[in-house]
Amino acid sequence: MERTRLRRQVALTRQSLFDQGFLDEQFIQLEDLQDDANPNFVEEVVTLYYRDSARLITNIEKALEKNSLDFNKLDGFMHQFKGSSSSIGAKKVKAECTLFREYCRAGNGEGCTRTFQQIKKEYATLKRKLEAYFQVVRQAGPAETACWPK
Amino acid sequence: MATSNGSSTGTKITALVVDDDRVINAIHCKLLNKLGIENHVAANGKEAVDLHCSGKKFDLILMDRDMPIMNGIEATRELRAMGVRSIIVGVSTRSIKQEIQEFMDSGLDDYQEKPLTSSKVISILRKIDFVD
Prior knowledge:
The complex is a heterodimer of chains A (150) and B (132).
Chain A: H1 2-19, H2 25-33, H3 41-65, H4 71-87, H5 91-105, H6 109-140
Chain B: E1 14-18, H1 22-34, E2 38-42, H2 45-53, E3 60-64, H3 72-81, E4 87-92, H4 97-105, E5 110-113, H5 118-127
Parallel strand pairs in B: 1-2, 1-3, 3-4, 4-5
């Protein structure tokens, strides 16, 4: 009964991440790559994303602190961050990255700063939600790392 | 269009994933692995060139465009100048036609937007007659 409850919780938590727009189709691609050889592949990739992207966040923060903004540099950092975020299906983060890059192209420093705050918010929110999701997945056991309904 | 050297290790297809993004490398390597392709990783264009200078050969190279030290355009030009005839597929998030063409002109056989999916990789392999 407990296992059934946990499985239901996994399914509901997962669905809410898509319904609320936090994740897109790319996350399903990651799930499809998960198998018996790598039963925690999705969690490992997401963990790697948050570990590696922290450096990019810091770089962007430092670049935004300068008196004279280098929009080419900012755009370069964000291009990288957006690519990485897209690869795990981070839909809201990706959308804010696109907006940031538009502000870069327009040379709008205030827009960049404002959007970056939103990026950090979405990035942190997604991290919390995915951590909670993976915790339930682990509790539910290995069966939940198999094929997902599309 | 370049043609493949053929596998350097019997009949198994070998691939080199060239990207500075470790997340992308993890995803693309897993994708290739699931398709039975033996894969290696280089973190930038210079590492890819150095691997070839050391005598390594690959049937397929997935080349990112934007990388530090040596980008994908420079690396592809260098590899072709060295006489590397592997299939080189450019992968990038760039979607502007001019930028894609600039990358293609460096010596690519194909270009795909990343992240790659199984169907994109299969279509690459079909184009180069590695699968039916």
